[in-house]
Amino acid sequence: MKPVIDLRINKDVKLVELLRQMNEIGGFTAKKLATGIEIFESMKNDKECIKFLSFPACIISTGLRGVIKDLIKNKLVDVVITTCGTLDHDLARTWKDYYEGSFDMNDAELYKKGINRLGNILIPNESYGIILEDKMQSMLKEIAKEKSSFSTREIIHEFGKRIDNEDSILYWTYKNNIPIFVPGITDGAFGSQLWMFRQKNKEFNIDVLKDEEELSEIIFKSKKTGALMLGGGISKHHVIWWNQFKGGLDYVIYITTAPEYDGSLSGARIKEAVSWGKVKEEAKYITIEGDATVLLPLLVAKFL
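-> structure tokens emitted (304 positions)
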């Protein structure tokens, strides 16, 4: 047994040293975070491992977008699976600003002012639906000149190609040729704009089954797979669902705020996925309870 060591910090302690100490203090979430860092490093150094990143859209409205972007920019992940709102927020913030707010603001007053509240982030109408419609419809006209049917990975790639902004996630997935899949493509403003475009361009089509063909090829060609998953829902499930067909993930780090007592996928700890064959019994895995906006920067700081 290893003894518990007291954490020693002061104003001069460097972040790398603080994270090293967390591996020795033997305390609750700090220890889980340190284990997650070790697993991420093992996954990163395993040249046979295809690394998946999944996350929900809400965090892209925050400054955590920059960390997600840097993971992709530095090629620390190979495949991204997320929700439609990620495209909404990444594109909208490419052209307009979001603003700081509070969880305790008067929502009826915000509505009257044309401001949408996402937690403690404020998103004016002109920074979201209005700018997305204005920009996307003209871009879709240009994209549709080339062909009429796209997978979600392909249509996202086309948008990334047309965005000259290094703060954008879509820009870097295009630049580094990292596929980004959105299985719930119609569940957001980006999907609504696709639908609106189709009203006048009936030949235009999004082929979600083509995405599944690409994912199956990635999975069945891989020798090993790993995943960094933030939150649950369709993003998490799509990662673990496909990996069951190759015998399960070899490495997993899962960050969640959801409880497991209600049986939800978001609350399900990674060890539950072992019973489904979605994670290997001998895999290196950890579930870290907490807010990804706090935990993810600490988890990946030493690798960026």
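The domain at 34-84+148-303 is CATH 3.40.910.10 (Deoxyhypusine Synthase).
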